[in-house]
Amino acid sequence: MRLSGRRRSDNVNDARGGMSTGGKLGIGGLLFVGLITYLTTGGDLGKTLQSVTQEATQQMTTTSGNGQYKGSPKEDSLAVFVSQILAGTEDVWDQLFKEYNLGTYRKPKLKIFKNSTKSGCGSANAATGPFYCSADETVYIDLSFYDQMEKQLRAGGDFAYAYVIAHEVGHHVQNLMGILDQERQAEARYPQKANELSVRLELQADFFAGIWAHYDNKKYNSLEEGDVEEGLNAAAAIGDDRLQMQSQGYTVPESFNHGTSAQRSRWLMKGLRNGKLEEMDTFSINYTEL
Question: Which structural domain, as residue segments, surrounds residue 55?
Answer without folding.
Answer: 12-276+285-289
